[in-house]
Design goal:
Layout lengths: L13 H10 L8 H11 L6 E5 L5 H9 L5 E6 L2 H11 L5 E5 L2 H11 L3 E6 L9 H5 L2 E9 L10 H16 L3 E6 L5 E6 L2
Parallel strand pairs: 1-2, 1-4, 2-3, 4-5
Antiparallel strand pairs: 5-7, 6-7
Helix pairs in contact: 2-3
């Protein structure tokens, strides 16, 4: 019996957000299995400081927030004003969630300059995943978790995208400051724990 897709209880209000997401034609959301994993991982840190790079329309942030405790905070960042406005409309209802409209490269640089650290980073945009990787991993506290999805080749990928994913895996494999698990599950998940 497959358990993966059974009995997943979605966050409150997610149906309306998913309908609004479909209405604007945004299709790059995380897989439901990945979303549930993010929610579970968000539950492991009390009073955690969480970061999502790539808000999209706010679906992933909604699942992450659903797993956080009352003292935790989530910062979610995106550069697309249209999607951001939709996400903010839904996410602003939760005082623990802070939406930032900003270029990802600039945001990562500003966090590094301020010495900000996070307990959990979900990197779902080019900056933090394929660019500024060193700088993003430096934002993790010791014992923190870094997560990326969409690492298994998809039918829509061209050779350049396949190569980028392969290079990211190789780069992460070579790092000594993280412990890495690659999951051939959902859309392909990487979970890394910062150990030094």
């Amino acid at each position: 019996m497959m358990w993966d897709a059974h009995a997943l209880v979605p966050p409150s209000g997610i149906t309306a957000l998913e309908e609004a997401t479909r209405a604007v034609g945004f299709t790059m959301r995380a897989d439901t299995l990945t979303l549930n994993l993010l929610r579970t991982l968000a539950g492991i840190k009390v009073a955690g400081h969480f970061l999502e790079l790539g808000t999209g329309t706010g679906i992933s942030a909604s699942w992450i927030a659903d797993g956080m405790d009352a003292q935790s905070q989530l910062t979610t960042v995106d550069h697309d004003a249209h999607r951001f406005a939709l996400a903010k409309r839904f996410l602003d209802k939760d005082a623990r969630v802070h939406c930032v409209l900003m270029d990802g490269d600039s945001f990562i640089q500003s966090m590094a300059e301020q010495g900000t650290r996070f307990d959990f980073i979900f990197a779902d945009m080019e900056p933090g995943k394929y660019r500024y990787l060193d700088e993003t991993l430096a934002l993790l506290s010791r014992g923190a978790i870094y997560v990326v999805d969409h690492m298994l080749p998809q039918p829509s990928w061209d050779e350049a995208r396949v190569l980028k994913a392969s290079q990211l895996l190789s780069t992460l494999d070579q790092r000594q400051d993280i412990r890495l698990t690659k999951l051939n599950w959902s859309t392909g998940i990487i979970i890394a724990a910062k150990v030094q």
